[in-house]
């Protein structure tokens, strides 16, 4: 469904964020992209969603293919129309609008009854949003804002959902709830999922395959089972037998040479 090959991304003509990244997501497959801050995860999300120019970035080399169509330099509206929806980190909502108004904006391609039923489905799936449907979205809790973003994404009728750091800033119980929601949506709607996360424990609970990104390069690719058996991945991301900053740095040096 999504194929990224040898992708290089540069910002402002000088800052190289991705250095030859290759990645694939199959039909109805859930894939995790793990990595520390600054690894290039958000750059990959922006690239596949056609949003790089909005952030003064561009694809320097390589290509992106979605549903057998070249979308390397496609504008975001074309990528979205093909069925790829990206939920960006930082919860970018219309903060002065209500949840209802945010949903109406997200579902602008739907008409009449289809839009009405889509919004009703979102509120049925997220009852807390319905309770706060007439409040400004900026006053919702972090978990409620994440639910609203997922609801907005559903109204775009995606085939591939790319979600960037959905657990960021959430309490553990809310992280579990968000992950259960993503897993349920994927299975019920038959979606493909690219989950971009730092929280490896949460991500590994619902994916089949894993990529680890570090300093703009893929340093690990394999199944979830292979990731769970890889000592470096588990130590660095789940904290097994790791104490302090020095050992984390040792992991980084060793992985770059693998």
From TrEMBL:
Q: What is this protein called?
A: Branched-chain amino acid ABC transporter ATP-binding protein
> Which UniProt keywords are given for this protein, alphabetically ordered?
Amino-acid transport, ATP-binding, Nucleotide-binding, Transport
Q: Does the keyword Transmembrane helix apply?
A: no
List residues of the ABC transporter domain.
2-240
> Which Gene3D superfamilies does the record cross-reference, listed alphabetically?
P-loop containing nucleotide triphosphate hydrolases
Is the keyword Transport in the record?
Answer: yes
Q: Which Pfam families match?
A: ABC_tran
User: Which species is listed as the source?
Assistant: Thermus filiformis
GO molecular function annotation: ATP binding; ATP hydrolysis activity; branched-chain amino acid transmembrane transporter activity
